[in-house]
Design brief:
The chain is of the alpha+beta class. Helices cover 48% and strands 15% of the residues. The chain has eleven helices and ten strands.
C-alpha cells in the first residue's frame, strides 16, 4: 500500500492521494461519525480511525515535506482537526497531540535531528503516534508548577524510568511517549525523555471512564524501572530554566485544542438545524424553525461560531507566517473559543428540550464532549488571573 503523501495512487476508501488534506479528511469524516456513538458508549478506542488516517496520509500531515510528510503548519492542522472533531472528537484529540509533537520537533533546536527524522519516517510509513505524558496524580497539571514524581535514573548504559502518568491521551495506540520526569542527579534536572511504548516494565491501566471524550483512551501509563538509551534524553534542563514556558508548544496546544471543541459545537449546530426543520409540534402545526425565538437562538450560535472560526484561522495563520505571538493571547483565544463552543451547545439544548438530552440523539454526547474543553491547559481561571494581573501591571 502506497502511503507517500506525494503519490498519485488512488485508494478506493480515502480518495486520491494527491487530493488535498481537507478533501481527504472530509471523505473520512462520515465514517468516523458513524462509529463515534458506539465507541462513546463502550469507551472503546477507535483503532480503525487511525488506520484510515494513516492510509489517507493524514497522520503525517505536520511532518516536514522534506521528510516525506505533508509539511502542514498550524492553520491546515486546525482545519483538519475541526473536520475530524465534528465527526469524532476523541479521535481528533489524540491526533492533535500527535500533530503538536511533530510541529514542535520541526521547529525545536532541542530535539536531536536523528530522533526527529526517525519518528517522522515511522509516521509517514505507518501508524506511529506520539504524545507527551506530563500529568501525574500528585503533581496535577505541570502548568501549575512543581516537580514531577517520575524519576529518570542514569546508569552506565542508559536511563531507567519509574513513575505514573495519568490522562495519557491515546495510550492504547501510542508508539512513543515523551515523558516529563526529573533526574536523580545531585543537581536535579527536569524535562522530556523519549520512551518507546511496550518496553519491559511499562503497563497501561485502563482508568479512563470519563463524562466526555470517552474514546480517547486517556488511561494511566505506569513505568517500573523501564530502561531506554541515553540519547533518548530530549530536552532536560535545570528547573529554573523552565520558568519561561515553551511558547511554541503552548501556542500550538491552545489553538489546535480550540479547533477540536469548535468542531464539536459545529456538529451540535448541524443536528439542531435538522431538528428545527423536522420537528413539528401538534400545537404549532409548523416546524420549530418557523419560530422567531428559534431563529434568534440559532443566530446567536452562528455568531459565536463565526467569531471562533476567525480567531482560530487568523491566529494559526500568524503562527505559520512567523509572526511574533504572545502566549497570553493564545490562552485568551483558547478561553474564548472553548467557551463559545460550550455556550453554543447549551443554546442548542435550550431549543431541543428532552430531545437533546436523550442518548438516542447525538446532542447529548456533543454536550458531554464539549464540556471537556474547559479542563485543557491553560484552564480558564489561570488565563483570567494572568490577564487581570497584566492589566493591573502586577
Amino acid at each position: 500500500m502506497v502511503r507517500a503523501l506525494g503519490s498519485v495512487a488512488v485508494n478506493e476508501d480515502t480518495g486520491p492521494k494527491n487530493s488535498g488534506p481537507v478533501e481527504r479528511a472530509l471523505l473520512l469524516a462520515p465514517r468516523f461519525a458513524a462509529r463515534a456513538e458506539q465507541h462513546d458508549r463502550e469507551a472503546s478506542f477507535p483503532f480503525e480511525n487511525f488506520k484510515d488516517l494513516s492510509e489517507a496520509g493524514l497522520l503525517a500531515l505536520t511532518v516536514p515535506a522534506a521528510l516525506g510528510g505533508g509539511g502542514a503548519g498550524a492553520r491546515d492542522a486546525a482545519r483538519i482537526l475541526g473536520i475530524i472533531a465534528k465527526a469524532d472528537p476523541s479521535t481528533a484529540l489524540v491526533l492533535s497531540m500527535h500533530y503538536i509533537q511533530h510541529l514542535v520537533m520541526a521547529r525545536s533546536q532541542r530535539w536531536p535531528v536523528r530522533i526527529a527524522r526517525k519518528l517522522a519516517k515511522e509516521t509517514v510509513e505507518g501508524v506511529a503516534l506520539i504524545n507527551a505524558l506530563r500529568v501525574e496524580p500528585e503533581l496535577g497539571s505541570p502548568a501549575r508548577g512543581g516537580l514531577p514524581a517520575t524519576i529518570a535514573r542514569r546508569t552506565g548504559t542508559g536511563w531507567r524510568l519509574t513513575g505514573r502518568k495519568i490522562y495519557s491521551t491515546g495510550a492504547p495506540i501510542l508508539k512513543w511517549y515523551a515523558v516529563w520526569a526529573k533526574t536523580d542527579e545531585p543537581e536535579i534536572r527536569v524535562g522530556l525523555f523519549l520512551v518507546p511504548a511496550g518496553l519491559p516494565g511499562t503497563r497501561i491501566e485502563e482508568t479512563w471512564d470519563h463524562l466526555g471524550l470517552r474514546a480517547s483512551g486517556s488511561h494511566d501509563v505506569i513505568f517500573e524501572d523501564v530502561a531506554f538509551p541515553l540519547d533518548y534524553e530530549i530536552d532536560v534542563r535545570q528547573p529554573a530554566e523552565w520558568a519561561t514556558p515553551d511558547f511554541t508548544q503552548g501556542i500550538l496546544s491552545a489553538i489546535l485544542v480550540s479547533s477540536i471543541y469548535d468542531g464539536v459545537a459545529r456538529a451540535a449546530r448541524d443536528w439542531l438545524v435538522q431538528f428545527l426543520k423536522e420537528r413539528v409540534p401538534a400545537n404549532l402545526g409548523a416546524p420549530l424553525a418557523s419560530l422567531p425565538r428559534a431563529q434568534e437562538i440559532l443566530g446567536a450560535i452562528e455568531a459565536r461560531l463565526a467569531v471562533s472560526e476567525r480567531l482560530i484561522d487568523s491566529f494559526a495563520g500568524d503562527f505559520d507566517d512567523g509572526v511574533l505571538l504572545d502566549a497570553t493571547e493564545a490562552s485568551a483565544i483558547k478561553l474564548t473559543v472553548t467557551n463559545n463552543a460550550v455556550a453554543a451547545v447549551e443554546d442548542a439544548l435550550s431549543l431541543s428540550s428532552n430531545h437533546g438530552l436523550t442518548r438516542a440523539n447525538p446532542l447529548e454526547r456533543h454536550y458531554r464532549d464539549v464540556l471537556c474543553g474547559r479542563v485543557h491547559t491553560p484552564q480558564d481561571d489561570a488565563t483570567r488571573v494572568t490577564l487581570g494581573r497584566l492589566a493591573l501591571g502586577l
